[in-house]
Specification:
Elements: E1 5-9, H1 19-26, H2 30-41, H3 47-57, H4 63-70, H5 79-88, E2 92-100, H6 101-112, E3 115-124, E4 127-134, H7 141-153, E5 160-164, H8 170-173, E6 178-182, H9 186-189, E7 194-196
Parallel strand pairs: 1-2, 1-5, 2-3, 5-6, 6-7
Antiparallel strand pairs: 3-4
Helix pairs in contact: 1-2, 1-4, 2-3, 4-6
Length: about 210
Amino acid sequence: MSLKLAVFDFDSTLMDGETIDFFAEELGIGQKVAAITEEAMSGRLDFFESLQQRAALLKGLDFSVVKKISENLPYMNGAKETIAALKAKGLTVVCFSGGFRTATGYAKDILGYDADFSNVLHEKDGKLTGLVGGDMMFSYSKGDMLQRLQKILGVSEEETLVCGDGANDLSMFAHAGTRVAFCAREILEKEANIIIKEKDLTKILEQL
């Protein structure tokens, strides 16, 4: 059966790093935020709670800085080429991110995916308020959105490829026939049927 839908995580998958950690560096709290991110991605901390904690720590950061960082992120080796190759085969390619629309929305046209579902850092008077909302707030969000997308597009689990690196990708792994763990935490590798250890997304194409 041929694939029709591919869903990629953004942070540490399509992009080389964690967007929120780049923001935190600006405030001098990079290590503090990165530690919370690691706990969440390894499955030791509830994703929703971790997102709230990290967003709160960003309170006061200029939104202009958020936009500038979001538009200068390092994309993963092979991201653009892999998406182009999948689209050439007729797949719809989508990005699900527990990160932020400022990054995923900007990257959409650069990397070439069809749509992005992510979260929004609330800003008021040009500064972050420490609040966050959006499509990908919970540990189950990606799986929930994937099932809805499959129904809309008329795509089965067997026709779906998902690719991610952390615990918040587990919920979408439960609803896809092709499950790629990309430079991933052990908790996700256990549920994958393709494991890529090298930071090169084109390695996925060799497995299809």
